[in-house]
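Input.
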Amino acid sequence: MISRAGETVMTAFRNTRQRMAGEREAKAQPAIEIFDATGSTWRDRAFTAGALRTMNFKAIEYVVPGIIPEGLTILAGKPKIGKSWLALDLALAVAGDRFVLGELKPAQGDVLYAALEDNQRRLWKRTRKIMDTAQAVWPERLTLATQWRRIDGGGIEDIKDWASRATNPRLVMRRIALDYDRLAKLAEVQLIREAIDRNT
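Output.
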C-alpha cells in the first residue's frame, strides 16, 4: 500500500514527465514565423549598425529651447507645486511673443490650452497676474477651454479641427482630470501619442 505522501510524489513525478514530453514535442515542431498586425516580422523592423550610421534625421524642433521638444511631453508633479501656473505661462508666452522660465523665448504660434480643472474666473485672475498689468495685450492666438471631450470620445477630432483652423498651430496642452483612474490616464496618454505619431 502506498502512503498518501507516496501518492503525492508519484503524481508529481507523472506530471513532470508529461510536461517534459510536451516540451520535447513542442521543440520538434517546425519554427513558426510570428507576424504582427501589419504582416511584418522582426526582420522588417531591425537594422544593422552600419545602416544606422548612414541614416539622416531632421533636426528636433523645440517649443521651449532645450526643454520641451516636438511630440508628447508630460508635465507631472505633486499637487499645488505650480503645474497649472507653468502651463498657462507657457501658453501665453508661445501665443503672445513673451519669455518663459526666465529668459527663454519659445517658438511662436497658435496655442490650445484645455484647462479642465479651471474655470473662466480662475483663468482670468491668473492670466492678469502673469501679464503683470491690465493694459497688456492678451494674445488672440491662445484658445482656452475649460471643457473638452475625452480623447477616446471625440477629443482628438476636436484638436484636429482646431489645428486645421489655426494659422500656425504650435502647442496643444490638455490637463487630464483628476477623477480619471491610473489606467484611464495611461490609456488617454497612449491615444494622444498615437495621434501625434500619425500626424507628424
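The chain has seven helices and five strands.
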